[in-house]
Amino acid sequence: MPNPYLPNWEYIPDGEPRVFGDRVYVYGSHDLAGSDRFCDYTLKVWSADIHDLNNWTCHGDSFHTRADRDHDSDTPWTDRELYAPDVVEKDGKYYLYAYIVGSEGCVAVSDRPEGPFKLISTYRVPEGAAPILEERQFIDPGVLVDDDGRVYIYCGYLSSYMAEIRPENMAEVIPGSFRPDILPVEEPFGFFEACSPRKVGETYYLIYSPKMGSRLDYATSDSPVGPFTYRGTIVDNGVDYPGGNNHGSICEIDGQWYIFYHRMTNNTVMSRRGCVERIEILPDGSIPQVEMTSLGFDQSLSPYRFTPADLACVLTGGCFITEKNAIDRAVVQITSGCVIGFKYYDFGVDYSSKTMDFTAKLRGCGNKGNLKLVLDDPECGEVIGSCSIGPDDAVLHAAVKAVTGRHSLFFVFEDGYSGYFGQFFEGRTLCELEGFVFHK
Hints:
Blueprint: E1 16-20, E2 23-27, E3 42-49, E4 52-64, E5 82-90, E6 93-100, E7 106-110, E8 118-122, H1 131-134, E9 142-145, E10 151-156, E11 160-165, E12 179-180, E13 191-200, E14 203-210, E15 215-221, E16 229-236, E17 249-253, E18 256-265, E19 268-279, E20 307-308, E21 314-316, E22 320-323, E23 329-334, E24 339-346, E25 355-364, E26 369-375, E27 382-389, E28 394-401, E29 406-415, E30 431-439
Antiparallel strand pairs: 1-2, 2-3, 3-4, 5-6, 6-7, 7-8, 9-10, 10-11, 11-12, 13-14, 14-15, 15-16, 17-18, 18-19, 20-30, 21-24, 22-23, 23-30, 24-29, 25-28, 25-30, 26-27, 26-29
């Protein structure tokens, strides 16, 4: 599945990927399209067979802080929003850890990784614990069950902390185990939020969001309690794209490592959709930074299948993806100078053709302009063709240069007005892009 890898209507940010058995599960917050706040009052679970990442199954709601038409509330002491959960397996049970805004967080359990999860209790802390623990909020909890059965919880917003959890009940903090500033706020760490622990071989990883947090950075240690060494950035959702907060983690699925993260839609940081990129963990434990692409779990896209506009991974100049309804997504507010990019297409090895056809579906905005098709670099790449944009809704057709091999593709937009009166049309919206396809 390309990015975003879940259906158009689903917004699952803060994704924590976990492989249980032969399926990968994604646990995350639940955003709403066009919302004016982060998250809602429901957690949902999606999963896929590790050998078939193109077909994801929704398991429905797994936990609630407010009653809805189908479920009672699971938290009688609060009805606030649910943020950034994590789920771990211990002794055949699956434990959900949730942060609830401005309220005591909690632990819930299920016999199945998809839930639904039943409340065990709020977090239990020892008397005289540090003030940050006494609040029992445990912001953005990430949990690690180590090979020896010991359990650690990592949390924090603006500062980080960790504690050890008693494995007999999975909810009680062991006295004396609290450690503040497990990742410093000072550079190069610059900790902000979104702790997510993983163990790879004998190395402990903490993936997190630093200050100015469109990135996911990571640190490593040879102990679950640190000290941790800063290692760098894995992915940045703000590179040539309307960026915002980030939260996610790494996961090995059928021998391939991935970074799960989210990116923004609807011209807001509060409608976030899950994305994923392939990564590599080198022998020294480092993870080279990867770019944001349209690929998701795929290794390349086919230009000969219709590409919906919301697969764009480059959006510059002020354009953005928005939800028209549960089915339709378009790139809107396209003005002169905007660039929309997709990475990467495999055009094949057909050397017999000199040209191919390009078709794009646009919504007109009452103005005229031009769309240039550029390979590999929007500023200095090869221009393979162009289309004229009119004022009305249209399906554009153009003969463009035939292409072979693997390429990124960029649409560069220009207005269609020149001369003295062109100045009066600057900044006007040219069109909205719904999608496109190549054919021979």
